[in-house]
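> run fold Type I restriction modification DNA specificity domain-containing protein
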Amino acid sequence: MQTKWKTSRLGDVAEYINGRAFKPEDWKEEGLPIIRIQNLNDLGAPFNYFDDEVDKKYLIDNGDLLVSWSASLDAYIWSRGPAILNQHIFKVHEKTDIIDRHFLYYILKFVMDDIKDKVHGATMKHITKGQFEDVKIPLPPILEQRRIVNILNEQIATIEKAQAAAEEQMEAASCLLDAYLEFYFNPDNNGEVWPIRKFGEITSERLIGLVRSSKEQSIFGQYRYLKMNNITTRGSLQLDSIVAVDATEQEYKKYQLTKGDFLFNTRNSFELVGKTAVFNLDEDGWVYNNNIMRVRFHEKICSDFINWMFLSKGIKKQIDAFKSNTTSVCAIYDRQLVNLDIRCPPINIQKKIVAEINEKAKVVERLNIEMIKLHNELNSLPHRLIHQAFSGKI
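> ok
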């Protein structure tokens, strides 16, 4: 902050009006949307509505400055039309003779780290109105405020364009592997005519895993215990959060995982059931959960080939038709799985396709990592710019 700038308090430059306290029974299907914290942090979050009279101090419209002060601490300029403000969010009325609204918005972004340091309570981020209003802020002359706002607006608009481009590239990287899979596994695209066999015909064994309650799981068990959350939606294993269980010698022999085992998630949410992976570790001491089916194939079938095939649209469409819901849990049963139509080229062709897809998947993964890194760097730029502005560096 430049030394010539004055210092003031948040409470001296604006009035902060807390939103209305709504009860769940107040929510309606139509009316004005109620702005809750999730609606500020997630543009896709659904609104609740209110269709009765409300004090005008709770009414919000485009351009209003809002501050969330419980659970999530941040400042926002509202741009989604007429709405009603929920509790735990301040509507800000700035004193226009001493502070510009957009300058105050950026100031709030700048001091948010200091505000968070004043937060008390381990489970819920929360600040009292008194603590909030007592936060010190730099206060340059109004013309200097507007100069800073213009510079920040221009630079952040440029960053937002770059962010949008990076997000498009991330989406393109994600779609690239899907395009490769379509090329290899859609007969209309690759022109290859492969014999079709039922899934049950190409398997030599299908076995649901070992039942162990959460109380029987720890980090100290005899055997590592693979669970459905360890199978990703992209056909791989994620082994950062592995638990262990005890098992008898007979149980271990029955449920042991060996290299090349194909794993199918039989029970999960509707979106996640049917995830697959191949166990490709050269190590003993692994068993698997009862929400997973271990599949072993006849020698003329490559498990990695089947795993890639299960990520293709054709197989996904068949699996979606098999899904059976019971409340929040969705299941796919063995009697359904055995009837999947599987296109089976000769084993040498399977291995050739696996090698080609693996290489393409590595390229896609490297591209995705680069895009995520760029996206994260871009996301940090507005914060850094704002800090530069209030350190007198722009």
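The mean pLDDT is 89.
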